[in-house]
Write a structure and sequence with these properties.
The chain is of the alpha/beta class and 1089 residues long. It has 8 domains: 1-104 and 233-273, Rossmann fold (3-Layer(aba) Sandwich); 137-210, Arc Repressor Mutant, subunit A; 284-350 and 580-642, Hedgehog/Intein (Hint) domain (Endonuclease - Pi-scei, Chain A, domain 1, Beta Complex), CATH 2.170.16; 354-467, no CATH class; 491-573; 675-770 and 928-1022, P-loop containing nucleotide triphosphate hydrolases (Rossmann fold); 772-921, PCRA, domain 4; 1042-1083, SH3 type barrels (Roll). The radius of gyration is 32 Å and the shape is globular. Its EC number is 5.6.2.4.
Length: 1089
Amino acid sequence: MAELLDKLNPEQIKAVQATEGPVLILAGAGSGKTKTLTSRVAYLVQTKKATPSEILAVTFTNKAAGEMKQRIMHLLRLKSDKAFHISTFHSLCSRILRKELQQGSLLTNPPEDSSGEYTPSPPNLPSGRGGIRSNFTILDTNDQVTAIKQVMRELNIDLQQYAPAAILNFISSAKNELIMPDNYSEMAYGHFQKIVAKVYPRYQEILHANNSLDFDDLLMLTVKLFQTHKDVLKKYQDKFKYVLVDEYQDTNTSQYQLIKLLVAKHKNIFVVGDDWQCLPPTTKILTNKGSRSIQKISNKERVVCASGRSDHNLFDVTTVGKRKYKGQMLTIKTEKGHQITTTPNHIFFARLSETSKKSFVYLMYSPHKGYRIGIAKGIRNSGKKLDCGLRVRCNQERADKMWILKVCDSRPEAKYFEDYFSYKYGVPMTVFWNMPGRSMQYQQKYIDDLYRNIDTKKRASLLMKDLLLDEKYPHFLPSGTTPKHRDPRKIINLTMFGDARKTIQSPWCATRFSFQSSNNKLKDKLDRYGLQTRKSKKATWRIEKSNRDSQQFNSLVRAVQTLAPEVIINESAFITNNKFQFQPASHLRPDMTVPIWSNNKIVEDKIKSIKTEDYQGEVFDLNIEKVHNFIADGFVVHNSIYSWRGANYRNILNFHKDYPKAKIIKLEENYRSTQNILSGAAAVIANNQNRSQKTLWTKNGEGEKIVVKQVFNEQQEGEWVIHEILRQRSLDPRAEFNDFVVLYRTNAQSRALEEALLKANLPYRIIGGTRFYDRKEIKDVLAFLRVIANPQDDISLKRIINLPPRGVGEKTWADLAQHATAQNLPISEILLDAPVGTKAKIEIGKLGGIIANARNSKTNLSKLFDTIIDKTGYLKWLDDKTIEGETRIENVKELKSVMEKYDILDAEIALPTFLEEVSLVQDIDRYDDSEKAINLMTLHSAKGLEFDYVFMVGMEENLFPHSRSTLDHEELEEERRLCYVGMTRAKKQLYLAYTAQRLLYGSSTPSLPSRFIEDIPEELIAQTEEDNKKPDLPEIKAKVGDWVEHKHFGVGKVLAIDQVEVVIAFSQFGIKRLARSLAPLKKLAITDD
C-alpha cells in the first residue's frame, strides 16, 4: 500500500484515502485525474473496503475504460480485469437491461412495497412479439433515420418539409431528458414539436417490433427500470458499494439520474471532472419572512420576485449556487440610496433613461464595416418627439449593436474621451456611411477602404476586454427588420413578461419569443424545418410564441440558431411597464434606470455611481422557478445560474447541493504540460464566468514559449505544419511522427492538411474520419449477424435480403411483412416458405436456410463468419474487379480478424457479445499511440490524449470559436473550454496557426485571428523574426489597369489588387472579386486603345 501512495502528491493521496461518503475531485488538465481514480480503486481493494465486484467505475469512452482496467491490473498485479465493473454508461446499461430481461424482471410487475403502494411496470418493455427481449439489437444512427422515415411515410408526413434527422434529434433530446412518448405529447409546443410528438410513439413501436433499442433507450430505460422496480434498484445498490464517475461535468440528465439512483444507499460516490466550464454572502434577499442573507437561503425557500408589469409575487428557490471568487467587485449606488455589491458578470435589468441630458461615447458595430467610436446625445429632439440618441445614430449608420463606453456631463468631455478611446485602441471615429446631406470630404469608396484595411475587430475586442464589455449584451440593438438593406438583420427577441396576460393559477406574465425579419431565404428554411412563420408588415415575416417559463424556449432558440448561426439574441423584460434590457453589472452606467424595491412595490431609480474594488471570498447566486429573478439589496436582479441553454456541466457545480456533506478536493499540479503552456491555457479559460477557481502549476519548468503563426491560406498552413514537424525531428532524433498531432475545429479542415501530407509523402492517420464500422460493406455483414442473433430485427433483414440481389422489391417485402404479421412471426422465420413468386421464393428460401442453420450452429464466431460469407456469396458479389471492390473485400476480411478475438467465448454468448461491443465502439477507441504516423483529429476527439507536439490550426474568428457560438454566451464558454482542452494536450511545444484567408465549404473569405489568441499574454508567445513580416502572397503578374484572361470568366480588366483578392471587370460576367490564391489569371498583351 505504501508503494501505491508513494507515487501520488499530497492532494492525490487525500483523494484516494477519502473512501467514505461523496467526494468531488476538481481536476485540472494533466493533473493526474485518471491516476487518482485508478489508484483509489486499487486502494479500496487493498484496504479490503470492497471486493472488485463491488466497485463500479463509469466513463464516456471505451478507450478510457480500457485504460482504467489496464492501470488497475498493473497496480494490483492482476492478470484479469473480469471481476471489475469498469465501462461506459451505455455498456453498463446494456448489460443491466439484458440481464434483467433474461431473468424476467421487466416482464412482470413488482410486488407492493411496504407502504402498500403499487408501482406500475415500465412502459414499452413487454415480453413477446412486439416487445424487447434480452437479445435486442442496438441501432446505429443510419438505422434510426431509416425507422424515422418509415414512420413519416406511414403518417403521411412530408420528408422534404420536415427533416428526419431533425426529428430524430428532438427525440434523442427528449430521451436524454427522460421524457417518454406519452409525456412528450403533453409537453410539445409549436408545430414542429407536435410533428415530433406524432412520430416518437410510432418510432418506439417500430424499434420494439424489431426487438431493437437506440443508444438513448439504453440509458432512459435503465433509469425507468430503477425508478419503477425498487427490487431491481436495490439489487444494484447493494451490488455497487462504491461508484466512481469520470468526466462528471459531461453527464446529461439520464446519466446524472442513473448515478444518483445507484448511490442513494451507500452515498459512496466519487466523481472527477474539470468544471472550467454573483453576490457576496452578506447580500440581503427579500423573502416571505423578510430580508435574509443570501448565504442563509436554502432550496424551496419562498422569495419575493418581479412577476411582470410592476407586480410581484412569491416563488420557490430551486438552486443555490456557491463558489470561491477572487477578482473585481462593483458597488452600485442609486439616487434614492440603494446600494449593492456584485461580481461584474451578474445580470441586472437596466435601460437608458429617456430624459438623460448626458452625452454618450459609444462603440458601434456593423457586420459590413466593423467597429467605430463616436458620440451621441442622450436624447435627440427631432422637433416632433424626443428620441434616444443611440437609436438615431444606429439607424443612420445601419449598425447592428452599440455599447456605451463613457457617460459624460458635457460635449467637450465626450469629445475628449472619444479621442482618448480612439487613439489608445486604434479604433476609427469615421462614420460608416456618407449619407446624403452630410458635409464630408470622404467619399464612400474611401470609407469602405478604411474599414477594409484596418482590423477594427481585433482592436475593439481589446477595448471591450479592458472595459469589461460583453459582446452578447449591447446597450442598444435596432429592430430585426431591414427591408432596404442587402443583409437583413436576424434578431430573436426574448421578452420576459412580454405577454401581459395573467391567470389565477399563474399570476405572472409569460415570456414572449418573437423573431421578425425580411430575410426570405431564412424564412424558407424555418418553414421547411417546421417552425411556421407568419406574414408581418413592411415586407417582413415573424414567429411569435408565449410561455410561462422562459426555459421552455430552449429548443426553439437552438433550432433557429442551427439554421441561422449569426442570429442575435436580444433579452429584455417588462419588470415595470417599461422594458429593461438584460445587462451585466459591468455594463451599468450612471444615469441608467434600474428597477428597485421601495415601499413594498417595484419602482424605478437611476444609477448615481459605480465603484470598483478587489475581493476574495465566497459568492452566491440563486435560481428561481418560472420567473428567474429575485430582489437583492433592493435591486431586482436576474439569476445568473439560469441560462437559455441549461448546460449539463452545471451538474458538477451543483454537486454540493445533491450531497451537502461532500468533500471537495482540487488537483492543481500538472504532470503533462510545461508552465508556459499551462499559463497560456489558463489565460484563455480565465475569461469563462462559469468555472471553479483552480490554479494549474507544474514541476516541469517553463519550457518553450507558445508559437503563434500567421500564414496566407490553408495551403501554406499545411506546408508550415510539415516544415515544423520535420524541423523538430531534426532537432530531436527520438521524436517519432506519432508524437505530433494537428487539431482542428471542423472535419472539413482536414482536406488541405491531408493534401499537404500526401504531397510531402509523410505518414498520417485521421481520428474522427469515416469509421470502420460505418462503411457499407461492414454494416452489411453486421446486418447478417444481427438477423441471426435477433430474429425480430426486420430493419437489418430488410438491409440484406437483397444482398446479393434476390429479386426482392418493396412489393415483395410488403407481402412478406403481411404474411409474417398474419402468422404472428418475425419475417426472418417465414423465409423458408415465403408466399412469393417462384424465382424469388427459391432465393429467399436459401437465405432462410442459411439463417436457420447459423442460429443452430455451435461453431465459434470466426467459422460462423466464414459460413455466412461463403453461403450468401457476399464476397463474390463485392468482387467487381475494381480497386474499390478490392478495398471493400479487405475491409470485410479485417472484420473477421476482429471477430477472432471472441472465439474463446462459448458459441451462445460470442455473437451477442461481439455485436454489443461493436455497437458501443467509438472512433477514438481505435487510436493506437504506437503507430508511427502524424495524427489529425478534431478538438472534440482530443480529450484524454496527450502529445509532445500539438498544432492547433484554423485559430480564426467564426471558425474557432465557431460562428454559431460567438453571439451566445454559453456556447462561447464551451468553445473556450474546448480551446483549453486542445492547448493542454501539449507536453513540450504548442503551436497556434491562423490564416489571412481560408477556402472552406467552397468559399474563400478573409480571416481574423481568434479571440483565444488575444487572451494569451504576450510574454508567453515566442517572438520570431517573421512576426512583423506580411504573409507570402501568390504572385499576381498583372497590375491595376491590365487586361487578363480567366479560365471561366473570360477576358476582363483588373480594377484593384490587395492582400486578399483581385477585383476584375469581365466583359460578359461583370465585376467579380476573386480570391488572390485562387485566381488563375493570364495577362494579355492588349491595351485600352
